[in-house]
Amino acid sequence: MAGTMMGPGMEGMSSSNGGTTMNNTMYMHHKMMMHMTFFWGNNAEILFSGWPGTRTGMYVLALLLVFVLSVLVEWISNSRFIKPRNNPVVAGLLQTLLHAIRMGLAYMVMLAVMSFNAGVFLVVVAGHAVGFLFFGSSVFKQSEIPSYEKPSDLPPMRC
After folding, report:
1. Where are the domains of the chain?
2. Which of 5, 28, 73, 91 has its CA 20 to 30 A from that of 131?
3. Could you list the residue ranges that cross the membrane (predicted)?
4. In this structure, is the dihedral angle defined by the CA atoms of residues 115, 107, 72 and 132, taken in order, positive or negative?
């Protein structure tokens, strides 16, 4: 075919008589492009292809899941799971496992924010704020020792 342009992702585009035609494959590929700026709406893909879809109830469920993930990151970041009397090797392995879980959850939250959905972004910020309020701040601490003197098992997350 004269004037056929074949490049990565350009299957089905051809130039004939000075015009450009697209087949259905290219149209569907173009239609499913990812947002690169924040947008409002419930028609978003969060974490998995095709999820939550176009139904509002599934979007609300996705927002709830992302909220819980961000609260869990704060809970793990500010909790003490390791007893001081533990064997140092066991304590180190448990600390490593907790770090891996925390980082996995944090990256899942980051990937959800990368959907560029404004609702997801607001829910993540709210989840981290609520998680810090309950687990990191001194508002709900029953201890006489201030929270800044009693570190958690994990070092703080750094940027």
Report:
1. 1-33, 44-135
2. 91
3. 57-77, 89-114, 120-140
4. negative
